């Protein structure tokens, strides 16, 4: 007998909840904000909207389905199942946070605060949840993801972008190479390397792309193509600046060999979940074989 689908509702702690947890009470949090020229009511109202949205989406789950409520901080400890339907209730970034832990499960993005969120990934309102759940097994948009794989088989997957560089603000030193470039590599010293997808082209990747004049065409979210940029490459007698940006097709990859005591690679801004890279280690970055299935 097959299991009934499970609705996994992904949410995150609100700013109001974080403030009250830090200061102990609503009154203390209100005093803290007022001393800095802010009104806690603005924060509390956003909290109430988020909780109303989560309650409305929860109520829309069919009675014969199973349910799981999952906070963002617990994503890396949760075991997703093939029959899950994932409802991300919150901001666009929360979809990216969840994407790396999924393997083909359909995702429905619910916007809790229209007008504040761009709505690139959270495209729907809470009132639409019932209809979306009824059709979740149908067609979905297959969004391209990016992955980094080290020579000792560590693997990192991201929806928007992967950053490789030094922790903090130190200079990253490495050797950079491209597939199909006859083995040519360049020693570099920079602020790190950013490799992003078409979905990431609405965020951090786009800001770097604009700074470079926007000469490379941005990939579409479903296109099997990535863009990469070296940030603030430094020319010196030992380091070059000829390889500072380009595109990667599905069959190509960017190779980075570490020449620092420690570099890291992290995805979608989550530095707490990073690959630790040491001297002489090599990491390859390219299009991931997995896709994010975004409904609607």
Description:
It is a single chain. Helices cover 21% and strands 34% of the residues. The protein has 296 residues and is an alpha+beta fold. It folds into two domains: 6-138, Rossmann fold (3-Layer(aba) Sandwich), CATH 3.40.50; 144-290, Sandwich (Tumour Suppressor Smad4). Strands 1, 2, 3, 4, 5, 6, 8, 9, 13 and 16 form a ten-stranded mixed β-sheet that branches. The chain has a six-stranded antiparallel β-sheet with strand order 12-11-10-7-14-15, with helices on one face. Helix 1 (15-23) packs across helix 2 (26-34). The model has no long low-confidence stretch (mean pLDDT 93). GO terms for molecular function: NAD+ kinase activity.
Poorly predicted regions are none
Q: Please give the number of β-strands.
A: 16
Let me know the average pLDDT.
93
Span between termini:
30 Å
Shape: globular
CATH superfamily of the largest domain: Probable inorganic polyphosphate/atp-NAD kinase, domain 2
Radius of gyration: 21 Å
> Topology as H/E string?
EHHHEEHEHEEEEEEHEEEEEE
Name of the level-1 CATH class of the largest domain: Mainly Beta
Domain count: the total is 2
Q: Characterize the main sheet.
A: 10 strands, mixed
At CATH level 2, the architecture of the largest domain is Sandwich
Strand content: 25-35%
Share of helical residues: 10-25%
In CATH terms, what is the fold-level topology of the largest domain?
Answer: Tumour Suppressor Smad4
Structural class: alpha+beta
Number of helices: 6
Protein name: NAD(+)/NADH kinase
GO biological process, one term: NAD+ metabolic process
GO molecular function, one term: NAD+ kinase activity
Organism: Streptomyces bauhiniae
């Amino acid at each position: 007998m097959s299991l009934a689908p499970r609705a996994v509702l992904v949410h995150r702690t609100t700013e109001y909840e974080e403030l009250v947890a830090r200061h102990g009470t609503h009154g203390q949090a209100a005093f803290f904000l007022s001393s800095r020229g802010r009104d806690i009511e603005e924060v509390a109202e956003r909290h109430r909207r988020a909780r109303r949205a989560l309650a409305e989406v929860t109520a829309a789950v069919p009675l014969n389905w199973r349910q799981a409520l999952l906070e963002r901080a617990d994503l890396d400890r949760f075991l997703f199942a093939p029959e899950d339907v994932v409802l991300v209730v919150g901001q666009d970034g929360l979809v990216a946070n969840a994407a790396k832990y999924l393997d083909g499960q359909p995702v429905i993005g619910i916007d809790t605060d229209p007008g504040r969120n761009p709505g690139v990934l959270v495209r729907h309102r809470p009132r639409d949840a019932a209809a979306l759940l009824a059709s979740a097994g149908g067609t979905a948009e297959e969004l391209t993801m990016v992955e980094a794989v080290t020579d000792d088989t560590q693997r990192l997957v991201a929806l928007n972008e992967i950053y490789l560089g030094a922790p903090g603000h130190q200079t990253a030193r490495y050797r950079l190479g491209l597939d199909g470039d006859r083995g040519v590599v360049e020693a570099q010293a920079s602020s790190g390397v950013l490799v992003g997808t078409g979905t990431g082209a609405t965020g951090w990747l786009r800001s770097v792309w604009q700074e470079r004049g926007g000469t490379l065409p941005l990939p579409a979210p479903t296109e099997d193509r990535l863009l990469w940029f070296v940030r603030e490459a430094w020319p010196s007698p030992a380091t070059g600046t000829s390889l500072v940006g380009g595109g990667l097709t599905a069959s190509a990859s960017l190779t980075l060999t570490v020449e620092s005591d420690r570099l890291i690679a992290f995805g979608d801004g989550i530095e707490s979940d990073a690959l630790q890279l040491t001297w002489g280690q090599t990491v390859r970055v390219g299009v991931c074989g997995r896709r994010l299935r975004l409904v609607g």
